[in-house]
Write the structure tokens for this entry.
Amino acid sequence: MQARPRSGIVTRLDTLGILMSSNPNIKLLDRVNRAVSALIEREGRVTYPSLLCEMGVLTPKNLAEWRTGHAQCLERVVSSSLAKLARIQAAVRRIARDRRLDRKLVRAPRGRRYSKTGHPFIEDEYGAVYSAGNPAGRRSHPA
């Protein structure tokens, strides 16, 4: 059963009669989009630590703890679940693709990790630095 759409988002009633959004992550996507825009404007690039600080998920104090080696990994000092961090990463990839941002990988500083597991894909994702593309719109590296 369809309900009246609110602000362009199609909603529906579930079996219990609760109004549900067809895209439950739209608020998170908007929040990430605002943070990415602010970072691109201010710094010209987006890194995950700076993005998480901009979103309020990571405090500067906790970031400093990780950078100095007092925290085992970045994920341990973030005040969010790993599932939400994964949704933030997916949103960043989507935004970067839509805006045609260049992606460069930067490894974690020596002796430190981004993720609890240390999985190479996750480490690469946290180490991604997105920046505005070339003026001609061409990529400087293969995709």
